Amino acid sequence: MQKTSTPTTTNAWLCLLAVGFLVLLAACGSAPSTTGTGTTPTAAPTATPTPTAAPTATPTANPTPTPTPTTASSSGNSVSIKNFSFTPNSLTVKVGTKVTWTNHDSVTHTVTANQGAFNSPVLPGSSFSFTFTKAGTYAYHCMIHPYMMATIVVH
Ligand SMILES: [Cu+2]
Question: Which terminal CB of the chain, N or C, has fewer other CB atoms within 10 Å?
Fold first, then answer.
């Protein structure tokens, strides 16, 4: 009637042994695990190549040479009176230009505008100047020698 009790105790011991083995195995198994996790690779620096904006080559503006349109008639601002004629016969100037007539003859001439804008005797060797402040075509002549005729174009 009293024959039980032993199997239960042995079972308990077996259980304890089994647990002990498990603990040992676990210990053994976990022992080498410490070495593996040594180098935590730092996050590789993402090489962000900041593209420096290429400087747009701003070409230095070439100074466009404004071609002075030489008119067919003579430019400048002087008229010579020589050999009973005005040279150049037609002179083109801009508004505000002061034109000077110089008498190279040995006789007196006049610079007389047909419309009366100007009128002056020009003694031999002397000169006369007139500033054109209004655009237009100014025909003029010499009162002493009416065949002496010329034109100033103001624009
Ligand atoms: Cu004259």
Answer: N
CA of 130 to the centre of ligand 1 (A): 18
Cβ contact 90:151 at 8 Å: yes
Measured CA to CA, the distance from residue 43 to residue 117 in angstroms comes to 93
Give the single-character DSSP code of 120. E
Strand partners, 112: 119, 141
77 phi and psi, to 5 degrees?
-140, 30
Answer for the pair 119, 111: CB distance below 8 angstroms, yes or no.
yes
CA of residue 39 to ligand 1 center, whole Å: 113
pTM of the model: 0.53
Q: Which domains does the chain have, with CATH numbers?
A: 72-154 (2.60.40.420)
What's the whole-number mean pLDDT along residues 16-20?
Answer: 46
Task: Identify whether the C-beta of residue 83 lies closer than 8 Å to the C-beta of residue 105.
Answer: yes
Mapping DSSP to helix (H, G, I), strand (E, B) and coil, where does residue 125 land?
Answer: coil
